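Hey Z.,

So I finally got round to the beta-D-galactopyranuronic acid thing we talked about over coffee. Here's the setup:
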Amino acid sequence: VISALSIKAQRPATTNYDEAKVPVYTLPEVLKTGSGKAIKSAKAWEKLRRPEVLELFAENIYGPIPKDFDEIKFSLKNEDRNSMNGKAHLKEVLIEVFRNHKRIAINLTLFIPNNAKSPSPAFLLINNRGKENTDPTRLVKSEFWPAEVLIESGYAIAAIHVSDMAPDDKNEFMNGVLQLYPEQLNANNGMRAIAAWGWGASRVMDYFETDPQIDAKRVAITGHSRGGKASLWAAANDQRFALCISNCSGNTGAALARRQFGERVKVINTAFPHWFNTNYKKYNDHEELLPVDQHMLISLIAPRPVYATNASEDLWADPKGTFLSLKNAENVYGLYGKKSKLPEVAPGLNTPITEPPLAYHNREGKHDLRVYDWKQFIRFADNYYRKK
Ligand code: GTR
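And the result:
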């Protein structure tokens, strides 16, 4: 049973959990340019419409993920070739990035399967919870990042912590990546914490491209909730990510904004003013004015597969709105000849659709990232890589 009432009690009185009260809405058309030209091919999408949509998201919501910096350095701080009882090779890598005489450092924790015969495909988690969840010593084991499960399945598993890129605090978020890009901080359309977290994921890709044990062409970017919002924006900007997984990301993640179900733009902007850019505040109470909706963020990742999830007790993240977001991205995948395997209506609880290009499940239980979720992500990646 969905505990909408108990959720409601902790949330603002205006939060809607009643499907009957979802407003009638019209989504902006993905396959029509700003000037009204219909997009009918992948080529036209990539040339005319995709850049426009990317720019609309940068301008109105997340800010850009800047690509320029002066220097990047990778140093192996610690390694253990016999971790997990000999099953994995642990690498703790310090990634240092320099721009305009400023430096920031990202700590990467990485386990690689020892029995791999070729470079390993990898999952990278943008960790928005405690650092103990990604313990390199494995004294602490967490369902949030079940490294042993990934290693057993033949995947490398990596993590970075959000605080290295942008501390998750409205008074502290600028003490990270934004130190390198002060012009972003001052701009209404500039990057904020979510984009900074995505930027960090791209620096890990830079590292992966130098590590012969990793197959940089088969890297899945993963995140939960606020981390899942960042994983989508990272994958939209950086086409080196082969797959994107967005777990319980909800508002300004995988869920449609116009449904105004559960968390709303005004609520998220008020509670977390440091996540999105200043322009986004214009849409507080005015989701209908957004030039985009979140199905277009998923479209930006096409033709690369996307997996979005929900949990039954997490109506705040709008399960139906997440499913509809994926459904409304199907036509962009169609341009690439990738036929969606999603059913017409959202599947029941614990009924994962793990066939690419668009995957979905609604797990029974709470807002969380669990072994159950990871096992589905592994099936999804297996399905995709085997078919390629
Ligand atoms: C909530 C926020 C959600 C989601 C979540 C989380 O408080 O309203 O959008 O990001 O935090 O990150 O767990």
